[in-house]
From TrEMBL:
Pfam families: M20_dimer (PF07687), Peptidase_M20 (PF01546)
Keywords, sorted A to Z: Endoplasmic reticulum, Hydrolase, Manganese, Metal-binding, Purine metabolism, Signal
Record-level Gene Ontology MF annotations: allantoate deiminase activity; metal ion binding
Function according to Swiss-Prot or TrEMBL: Involved in the catabolism of purine nucleotides. Can use allantoate as substrate. The sequential activity of AAH, UGLYAH and UAH allows a complete purine breakdown without the intermediate generation of urea.
Localization: Endoplasmic reticulum
Signal peptide: 1-30
Protein name in UniProt: allantoate deiminase
EC number: 3.5.3.9
Organism the protein comes from: Betula platyphylla (Asian white birch)
Catalytic activity: allantoate + H2O + 2 H(+) = (S)-2-ureidoglycine + NH4(+) + CO2
Length: 482
């Protein structure tokens, strides 16, 4: 299969907008809204949208399976406790709640017309290992805070359409290497074979659910799919996880699209042996081979132009755009038997590969696989490349995005007075539940500034006032469009 690195023009154009935006210099002061003067204003609901939301983020950030760092994986004990906490907050916001058979926690209010198409708002309750407290949780908590304000103002019952908040059970894919177990089930794109995927200890998705008293079969997994006719759209608020908003000096921005991603598992098998007795020339060492494969990956992803060729359909722009967005990571590696005086018998590592351009990503995987097999052959080791996960790039709905942009603008205007610049629009290199839900309905996202662009780290931080801005933006969106 020869795949060309051609791009879809739409994505390329957006990428260039993104790059141009990233190069803009920061506004002199930026929109830092920390000013005691507005704290007392009751039209800004600071007690709920900021103080209580921040308190809840901190509380949820303590719900962990590990001592000393944050970790919640699919249906782990801490994930179940987190789900219960969120469920209580959903009820506090006036929502009817339930947990579905993939462990997603739902809270819904019907408004005046229970049969109208519903707005879904969501994000994930799972985390990476040694996580920050905002990734995922911010989207759930800011939505619940905004709905709580509507409840207090007596507006919940007067909504024109149902609103449903969903805390998805798995977006990070840490435990099963298959991201979006929760949102993909709701979108109807989770294959039934996903129930048989096992974690490192050999426990399957189905068994984990059963351990938690959730009976899941292939048939009732398919029933989790929402009817597209029953849904109006999906909105997700998420920490940016990158530096653009901070550089531009904006608390919130609107998301134009999300990069596509692939996860691979590479297994290299060689000849296990004694570290002291096997001459170097006689070794089939999978560790040295894995090192060469990883360096190849880095070179290819840093300089795709040196590796990919034209097939007559492509142009400079497609390769240029691929070079600008392509990122590749080996985040996990394990060896067997993992002892200092043993030449390993087997090395396994993960590859996470992302790009705005789906064709370009395919081209990279094709070239990478070819060259990896060549290296393994030269080194006389065997090499298996398993494709664990794929999600194509997603373009956010333009109308929904412009509604979110106006809502963000009005929130910031309320908080900061005059806003001179347009709310920034940016691309997401990180994956989000919105990718899975885009198979069900139109999606729109708001990003919230984070300190230093840091995420997937305990250093992840969002200013209290930026949490407030996010809640106020969602509130403005709900008040105007629902
Ligand atoms: C999720 O955070 C991802 O982008 O991997
Ligand atoms: Mn994440
Ligand atoms: Mn996330």
């Amino acid at each position: 299969m020869a795949v060309s690195p051609c791009t879809k023009r739409k994505i390329t154009t957006i990428l260039f907008d993104y790059l141009a935006l990233s190069l803009l210099s920061t506004t002199a002061s930026g929109y830092m809204i920390s000013d005691a003067g507005i704290s007392g204003r009751n039209d800004l609901f600071g007690e709920i949208l900021r103080d209580e939301a921040v308190e809840r983020l901190n509380e949820l950030g303590k719900v962990s399976d590990a001592d000393g760092y944050l970790e919640r994986t699919f249906m782990s004990p801490a994930s179940v406790r987190a789900g219960n906490l969120i469920r209580g907050w959903m009820e506090d916001a006036g929502l009817r709640t339930w947990v579905d058979r993939m462990g997603n926690v739902h809270g819904r209010v019907e408004g005046m017309n229970a049969s109208a198409e519903a707005l879904l708002i969501g994000s994930h309750l799972d985390t990476v290992v040694d996580a920050g407290i905002f990734d995922g949780s911010l989207g759930i908590i800011s939505a619940l805070s905004a709905l709580k304000v509507l409840k207090i103002n007596g507006i919940l019952g007067k909504l024109r359409r149902p609103i449903e908040v969903i805390a998805f059970s798995d977006e990070e894919g840490v435990r099963f290497q298959s991201t979006f177990l929760g949102s993909a089930a709701v979108a109807g794109i989770l294959p039934v074979t996903a129930l048989q995927i096992s974690d490192k200890s050999g426990v399957t998705v189905q068994a984990v659910l059963e351990e938690n008293s959730i009976e899941i079969s292939e048939e009732n997994l398919l029933q989790l799919k929402y009817d597209p006719g029953s849904v109006w759209g999906y909105v997700e608020v998420h920490i940016e996880q990158g530096p653009v908003l901070e550089r531009l000096g904006f608390p919130v921005g609107v998301v134009k699209g999300i990069a596509g991603q692939t996860r691979l598992k590479v297994t290299v098998r060689g000849s296990q042996g004694h570290a002291g007795t096997v001459p170097m020339s006689m070794r089939q060492d999978p560790m040295a081979a894995a090192a060469e494969l990883i360096v190849l990956l880095e070179r290819l992803c840093k300089h795709p132009k040196d590796f990919l060729s034209f097939d007559g359909h492509c142009n400079d722009i497609s390769l240029e755009s691929l070079s600008n967005s392509l990122v590749c990571t080996v985040g996990e590696i394990s060896t067997w038997p993992s002892a200092s005086n043993v030449i390993p018998g087997q090395v396994t590592f993960t590859v996470d590969l992302r790009a705005m351009d789906d064709m370009g990503r395919e081209s990279v995987i094709y070239e990478l696989s070819n060259q990896m097999y060549q290296i393994c052959e030269r080194r006389s080791v065997s090499c298996v490349i398993d494709r664990k996960h794929d999600a194509n790039a997603v373009i956010c709905d333009s109308e929904l995005s412009s509604q979110l942009k106006s809502a963000a603008y009005s929130a910031l205007k309320k908080m900061a007075g005059e806003i001179q610049d347009e709310i920034p629009a940016l691309m997401s290199g990180a994956g989000h539940d919105a990718m899975a839900i885009s198979h069900l309905t139109k999606v729109g996202m708001l990003f919230v500034r984070c300190r230093g662009g840091i995420s997937h780290s305990p250093e992840e931080h969002v200013l209290d006032d930026d949490v407030w801005a996010a809640g106020l933006a969602i509130l403005a969106f709900l008040e105007t469009h629902m």
